[in-house]
Amino acid sequence: MRILVVSQYFWPENFRINDLVAECCERGHEVTVLTGYPNYPSGEVFPEFQRNPSAYTTYAAARIVRVPMVSRGRGGLRLMLNYASFAVSAMALGAWRLRGEMFDVIFVFEPSPITVGLPAVFLRYLKRAPLAFWVLDLWPETLEAVGVVSSKKVLKAVGLVVSFIYNRCDMVLAQSRSFIPQIRRYCKADKVVEYFPSWSDAEFNTSAAEAAKEVPASEGVFSIMFTGNIGDAQDFPSVLDAAERLKEDKSIRWLIVGDGRASDWVKSEVRQRGLEHCVFMLGRYPINRMPSFYRRADALLVSLKDEPVFAMTIPGKLQSYLAAGIPVLAMLNGEGAEIVARSGAGLSCPAGDGEALSVAARQLACMDSDRRQAMGARGLALYKEEFDRAALISRLLSWFEDLSAGRTGKLRRREHRR
């Protein structure tokens, strides 16, 4: 198949879409990616890309078509300009650069913003190709939850944009089962909406990796590691509250591997609260380095704010944590917490509860190693059963084939049988 992927984010940025594209190419499909200039999560265009943009025109066997846009920078206004500029640039310049080309299916990767769907809808019209849209972030709910937008009028206007996009897709994919009713609020009754979760963003062989030298060695200390985006949604005020409650306990430390819009705030708070001895900000590293960092972790931390929209979300890092076979420490509500509890892969506490997180952290630290190893093994077993990468991508490609062949009726019948 000839697949056009529309994503505001792509390699060398670290997102699951990179893995999906590489796998589609490996299976013999012809993939073109329409994306922007890499600037996530730092907010500035990557220096290595600026020095040699021609080195970033292919990935695996996929061709990359990049369009200019305003980088994320810092602050809400700059972020909105980033979102809008990609949508406009991809519609205008992207459509021009793809002129004369035809595709069997168009696929949208949407961790945020929803506006990535606008150029995809335009290209669906131009190319007469079916459109599948993967929703990993609910708008306008997330905008309200993280405090970016509080105006009811603006949120209603965003909801109209969401409805416009969803109803011009041939298929909408939801990253969690809880997303499906929310998506349907904005869709016509006959819209095909399927559950399609994420998988691990890297193949982990932790035992074969050399332990990361960037992590200070500390014999006999229980290491809790957070990896990924450091933003408002991850609720670092509550995480630091837990760390502060345990700061006199020299046997527990917190390792933060990643970067994001809240990084500077977290660094400042670590200094102000006197947590430098137990909270270590290690910076951002590529996905292929994660196994070496996980070698230094006794537990892996996943957290989201106490907001209804996040209770419906399965954090993308949760699948990676399960695949690593290391106990999970979760400060979550809803579907993510249910996965941890059902699998027995670790301990969880309610979102936004720093005190409960500190209790769970100490409880994990005091467990014997055999019990923690059993937790990790149960998490890995669940991952293989429900989130296996090969099986999920095969399912997606099967849907693509149905869409390309015009078998939307078959998709609707399959959905109704469930």
Concise synopsis of the structure shown:
With 418 residues, the protein is α/β, with parallel strands linked by helices. It is built from 17 helices and 14 strands. It folds into 2 domains: 2-199 and 388-417, Rossmann fold, CATH 3.40.50; 206-386, Rossmann fold (3-Layer(aba) Sandwich).
Description:
The protein is α/β, with parallel strands linked by helices and 418 residues long. It folds into two domains: 2-199 and 388-417, Rossmann fold (3-Layer(aba) Sandwich), CATH 3.40.50; 206-386, Rossmann fold, CATH 3.40.50.2000. It has 17 helices and 14 strands. The strands form two sheets. Strands 3-4-2-1-5-6-7-8 form an eight-stranded mixed β-sheet, sandwiched between helices. Strands 11-10-9-12-13-14 form a six-stranded parallel β-sheet, sandwiched between helices. Strand 3 (58-59) and strand 4 form a beta hairpin. Helix 3 runs parallel beside helix 4 and helix 8 packs across helix 14. The longest helix is centred in the N-terminal third of the chain and has 22 residues, at 76-97. The protein is globular. The two termini are 28 Å apart. The relative contact order is 0.11. The mean pLDDT is 93.
